[in-house]
Amino acid sequence: MLFPNAVFFPQTTAYNASILSYWSQQEQRLTPSCILRPQTAQDVSKAVQVLSDYEADGSVAIAGCQFAIRGAGHTPWAGSANVDNGVTIDMTSINAVDVDHSKAVVRVGAGARWSDVYRELDAVGLGVAGGRVSAVGVGGLITGGGLSYHAPRFGFVCDQVLNFEVALANGRIVNANATSNSDLRFALKGGSNNFGIVTRFDLQAFPQGKLWGGSTYNPISTLPD
Q: Is 36 helix (H, G, I), strand (E, B) or coil?
């Protein structure tokens, strides 16, 4: 059996915990046949090859099994990150956050949450254009476009991705950036498209000090002003 310690079936503790952790009830109502939790990009590649049933030469032998990709599970509509009677690939174990020695780039696993990213960056005085709610997943926000508190300065969160590491439908792992597979990079920048499974995002980092936040309240008497 492939991935003997990373496949969870209905009515097991790990399966039930994963289903109940979806943000929306629409997603919680779906019941995949099993949940696969890969540990590396290579695991994702192998899973895609098996589920798509690719031959060694890259041709498709038969129609593959339906599967869905889950990051943090915050996207609300049914089927966005879960599937009925198929396989849900739960990316949450691919959550490493690595700051480049230049402090200009941060490499983020597709299963990380923004809280994981900010925790690492705060310690070294850096920031990225990322989610406004720390519990939201990195993968879903970026592939959907993404708004951040830095949007007026940097645009969409996806605009700050320097490189996508992607497992393609035939299992091949490629990088998509300005000089390699640039058309794929463009296609992945928003829209939650299905052109591959992103396993890592390389984000542009910048110096960041303390960030002020809060709410301002004014009495109703100031409304005419």
A: strand
Strand order through the sheet with 197-204 = 97-99, 105-109, 197-204, 161-167, 173-177
In angstroms, the first-to-last Cα distance of the chain is 69
What does the alpha-carbon distance between residue 89 and residue 109 come to, in Å, rounded to a whole number?
14
* pTM > 0.85: yes
Query: Do the strands 197-204 and 126-127 form a parallel or antiparallel pair, or are they unpaired?
Result: unpaired
Residue carrying the six token digits 């990709």: 69
- Choose among 12, 23, 21, 119: nearest CA to 76: 23
Q: For 63-82, what is each residue's pLDDT tens digit?
A: 568 999 999 999 999 999 99
- 3-class SS of residue 138: helix
Closest among 194, 176, 197 to 186, alpha carbons compared: 176
| Rounded CA separation 162/180 (Å) | 11
Task: Give the integer Cα–Cα distance in Å for 68 and 48.
Answer: 11
